[in-house]
Amino acid sequence: MTMPTIELKPSSNPLSDAEREAILASPGFGRHFTDHMVTIKWTEGRGWHDAELVPYAPLSMDPANMTLHYAQTIFEGLKAYKQPDGTVATFRPRANAERFQASARRMAMPELPAELFIEACDALIKQDSAWVPDSGEASLYLRPFMFASEVGLGVRPANEFLFMVIASPAGAYFPGGVKPVSVWLSEEYVRAVKGGTGAAKTGGNYAASLVAQAQAASHGCDQVVWLDAVEHRWIEEMGGMNLYFVYGDRIVTPELTGSLLPGITRDSLLTIARDLGYTAEEGRITTEDWKRDNENGTLTEVFACGTAAVITPVGSVKSERANWTQGDGEPGEVTMKLRKALLDLQTGRTADTHGWMHPL
Ligand code: PLP
Ligand code: COI
After folding, report:
1. For residue 360, is it within any domain?
2. Contact status, residue 213 vs residue 224, Cβ threshold 8 Å
3. pLDDT over 90 (residue 153)
4. Which range marks the domain in which residue 281 is found?
5. Is 169 in the pocket of ligand 2 (CB under 6 A)?
């Protein structure tokens, strides 16, 4: 298959340096977007075509666009970091490209070649490189996504899709900084079930999570923890993050049962933790294990991890029946060590021994 080359149509009206600098001083998360975006079309029988890097602009959509009705849509999230020598690099973009392909298969969508996914991200970052924040934990968050662009109300896979990449400068996902989050164990609502779409990064999973997130907030909690949909006791993951349980120098993350998202941060930490001398495992943990092992002191720390949120400690847990402080409620030593190791790697302060960084 021939791959389209990305044609550049630069913006004639980018934000001024002063406007951009004002945004970069306090970017928040997902609130501001860079001057350009990538669009690539897919049509049945023709494949991928019309790859363009164009000015960031609204899309015009037919009211009968199939995505608006039946949600055939997937997305990814990855970050570009400024390196000490001033260059820019992304973290494991091929892993995101491959997960995007897996999401596409589950949602009956065409698979974008991994090379084209990476090239599209690279082209946007290069064009809008002035938007990559300079320091510390700040980064440029890339949001590749794809949706059905065919018009019609028949329920079937669309025969036209649009792949896009947009970019947004990102500060901390949780505005309070590294502050432990409180979590709500969702026993009423479930996120996903084996055979469903839980392992795909598709919009419907997030739409379905919002009512539980609101329930968590009504109980004074920051985030939802999802349990398995059958027994309602096996820990799966959080709203946009995977979970790790720290037992002294052994860390355990819920195994990929088919209903949780295979996080790239989760996967990276299995390796980074072993590099640091910890034992790192996939396993199964129930809500009763969590409460008991916290009480008897063997479960020393719990943290969540994901691209947007990096590593965030869990400080307290609540459910309909129980309520406890995790450890002493403060960020734990192992959590903060892993957080530093991950960020040092991503920002080029330590050697990339696993070939995970993709320089532009
Ligand atoms: N779980 C869910 C539901 C997510 O949306 C995310 C974010 O992408 C993650 C886990 C963490 O995945 P990753 O580390 O690849 O960002
Ligand atoms: C990410 O970490 O990239 C996520 O997708 C989390 C959330 C913003 C959906």
Report:
1. no
2. yes
3. yes
4. 181-347
5. no
